[in-house]
Amino acid sequence: FGLGCRPLKSVFIPSYQHSGRVLTKRLENVEISLAMADLERGKVIFSRSCSQCHTVHKGGPHKTGPNLYGLFGRQTGQAAGYAYTSANKNAGITWSESTLNEYLIKPRAFIPGTKMVFQGIKKEHDRLSLVAYLKLVTAPEAP
Q1: Dist. CA 134–CA 57, nearest whole Å
Q2: Per DSSP, what are the bridge partners of residue 16?
Q3: What is the residue-averaged pLDDT of the chain?
Q4: CB atoms inside a 10 Å sphere around CB 57
Q5: Are 139 and 3 in contact (CB under 8 A)?
Q6: Quick one: pLDDT band at residue 34, thresholds 50, 70, 90?
């Protein structure tokens, strides 16, 4: 989309802890090409499906869901000042393009016990566009 982004590598996460048991989450062969994503589409999807519950800018308030600023590279359940479920706090997942893409398919299946009521996004291009948009607008400012 003209911002100098390149396709990202496949990611494989063999397992993560959840509620005292180990769950296997396979993300192998998940090719996420942000270069093929549509930022404008991602913005529309965010406005239509996410903005009621989330903000994205530095210092933005928490709503029903947490502010997403600085999302990528942060572990689940760790945005300061937001009351997460224990499922989110203890999931031990670090947000990346791949984990967010997988989560957005069906959030309650990815993190059982989350209070997020959003049903998910079935169309891969829409998910990738949303992930690309979030990657851009939630990135901490360069020093």
Answers
A1: 10
A2: 23
A3: 80
A4: 11
A5: no
A6: low
